[in-house]
Design goal:
Blueprint: H1 9-12, E1 18-24, E2 29-35, E3 40-46, E4 51-60, E5 64-72, E6 78-87, E7 92-101, E8 106-116, E9 121-130, E10 137-147, E11 153-162, E12 167-176, H2 180-187, H3 193-214, E13 218-220
Parallel strand pairs: 1-3, 2-4, 2-13, 3-5, 4-6, 5-7, 6-8, 7-9, 8-10, 9-11, 10-12
Helix pairs in contact: 2-3
């Protein structure tokens, strides 16, 4: 599933755009929402007992690349990376998640959700590296995609490099088109098929959108740098 011919997105994707740097001190909590209207590189360092929750949300209307590099350096730290986006027609969206765990008892959860429209492409790469000396920890990665338009595509590149036997890890991928039965259900009630597909897509992204709606997040526009 890994194409060795293609360089990691973090090496080639970002030649311009904004950089966001986040530091989460020991036993503190940070909640961040990032508008993905343009390319952005995000680097974070999470210390002992700290919690970092990061949500990428928005509609991708031009070719952009998002890179998230997170280092978990303190024991008992928790990192949650979420994405909920729709990709406009004839647009390519790249998302590269790279997490390095070097501390005991860490938790890493990545949940990326993407909807692609006509002739749009999404490339989602999730890379988690766990050092061999790490004792105990949880890694859960997930990619869920919906192909809403014709000739749309979602490519998933999962990489779990776990050198410790003490880590509980799991990964899942699900990419599909809206169920014909659901579209027929809407049609029986006089709802146009395109509108029905968009309603299904909104419901598909709703769990991540709910995090933004119901929790207090700090929003970083892509022209700002935060330290």
């Amino acid at each position: 599933m890994i194409d060795e011919r293609e360089k990691p997105l973090s090496e080639v994707a970002l030649r311009s755009g904004a950089d966001i740097v986040i530091s989460v001190p020991a036993r503190s909590s940070r909640k961040v929402e990032v508008d993905i209207s343009q390319s952005v590189s995000i680097s974070a360092r999470v210390e002992a007992g700290a919690i970092l929750s990061m949500v990428l949300v928005g509609e991708v209307i031009s070719d952009i690349s998002i890179v998230r590099n997170v280092e978990i350096v303190g024991s008992g730290a928790r990192v949650e990376l979420f994405t909920a986006c729709t990709v406009a027609p004839n647009v390519t969206f790249r998302c590269d998640d790279d997490v390095h765990i070097s501390a005991d008892g860490a938790t890493c959860i990545i949940d990326d959700r993407c909807v692609t429209q006509d002739r749009s492409n999404a490339i989602i790469r999730q890379r988690v590296v766990v050092d061999s000396l790490v004792a105990d920890g949880v890694v859960e990665t997930s990619v869920r995609g919906m192909l809403l338009g014709d000739k749309s595509r979602i490519r998933v590149i999962p990489e779990l490099h776990i050198a410790s036997n003490a880590i509980r890890a799991k990964h899942r991928v699900a990419v599909a088109r809206p169920s014909k039965a659901i579209i027929a259900y809407f049609a029986c009630r006089g709802i146009d098929s395109m509108i029905a597909r968009r309603m299904v897509a909104d419901q598909f992204l709703c769990p991540i959108w709910g995090l933004v709606a119901h929790r207090s997040y700090k929003t970083y526009k892509t022209y700002r740098t935060y330290e």
